[in-house]
Design brief:
mainly beta
Length: 333
């Protein structure tokens, strides 16, 4: 007799698998950190992947201290600009805006995203924010894709970044000092630190239930087609339950990957750009971040980085030792 039941296919943890509402990924939480106030997030654009040779920094690894080859992802991170300072207070329904101040010298490209406020006095707005009455401080920042040769757009990507560490008055003073200024990725993290990465995955359009949920093909003795679904469920209840694998949107979902190691932060993209440039991207010409392993999304996708929120990883006191980053051509691979 055949087996009457088997484990279901496909995780329901990400359901419903709808298209992401925005190409800009979001973080629903931010970890608490110690030390002086600092920026807890940054953003860049995915350039591509290559491989590097690094001295294995994992103390329990069988190759610890030896030179190993690892896959790396290159994220181009041109400087971001601070558009506004926003303060929050804890309300009955979560965080509520307690005040915000917008910079005067906003880029004209920001008009492509939303109407730039006029006749706004940032000094008066900052004076209304009482550090004793707030519970969180964040910055409204935007990217500068016009500095990236591989990005075919001018409209910036707007997002919030949290200020962590220190006391609330110190955070507010630190945020005020950054209003209207450029911030660099080196102010967010250092070489060897761990970060969480959020991105929108590669979209694959509408797909059938077999491709979408990886269900079993039916027997070759099936009367009609092998890729049909076996059953839509019970007669009762009288509707198709959401746990039944069906066709629909596949890809273009937000995904967050935890504990990715920053191997290198560089200022000259020529150091890691392969001969002929990255496929579908071109040359990296501004600052960049080299991350151990792969990350979600296709080339040119916006990538957001955050301080690692889950403990249990190897903390490095010094930067990993990279001996070589491959610059072999990716054309025709």
């Amino acid at each position: 007799m055949p087996k009457e039941s088997r484990p279901r296919h496909g995780s329901m943890g990400f359901s419903p698998r709808k298209r992401s509402e925005s190409p800009v990924p979001h973080f629903s939480s931010w970890p608490e950190i110690d030390g002086a106030p600092k920026l807890q997030g940054f953003a860049g654009y995915k350039a591509g992947m290559t491989h590097a040779f690094v001295v294995d920094y994992r103390p329990t690894s069988t190759t610890s201290g030896q030179e190993v080859q690892v896959p790396v992802t290159v994220i181009e991170t041109p400087p971001m600009k601070v558009a506004a300072v926003r303060a929050y207070r804890q309300g009955t329904n979560g965080l509520q805006v307690a005040g915000e101040a917008w910079a005067k010298n906003l880029d004209k490209e920001l008009r492509r995203v939303f109407p730039i406020p006029k006749d706004h006095d940032p000094d008066a707005a900052l004076g209304k924010i009482d550090a004793a009455m707030i519970d969180d401080v964040r910055l409204i920042t935007y990217t500068q894709p016009i500095l990236v040769t591989g990005m075919p757009k001018k409209a910036p990507d707007l997002m919030e970044q949290r200020i962590g560490g220190g006391t609330l008055p110190e955070r507010l003073a630190y945020a005020k000092s950054l209003l209207g200024k450029e911030i660099r990725v080196s102010e967010f993290c250092r070489e060897g630190s761990m970060v969480d990465i959020a991105a929108i995955t590669k979209g694959k359009g509408w797909q059938g239930h077999h491709t979408r949920w990886n269900t079993h093909l039916l027997s070759h003795k099936n009367s009609k087609h092998r890729r049909n679904i076996g059953t839509l469920g019970n007669f009762q209840p009288g509707y198709v339950r959401p746990t039944v694998p069906q066709a629909g949107q596949f890809g273009y979902h937000q995904r967050t990957e935890y504990n990715k190691r920053v191997l290198k932060i560089g200022e000259d993209g020529k150091e890691i750009t392969p001969n002929g440039g990255f496929l579908h991207y071109g040359n990296v010409r501004t600052e960049y971040v080299l991350v151990h392993g792969s990350i979600p999304g296709p080339t040119k996708r916006l990538i957001r980085l955050r301080d690692a929120s889950r403990a249990g990883f190897v903390k490095l006191e010094k930067a990993p030792e990279l001996t070589q980053v491959s610059r072999e051509s990716k054309q025709g691979v």
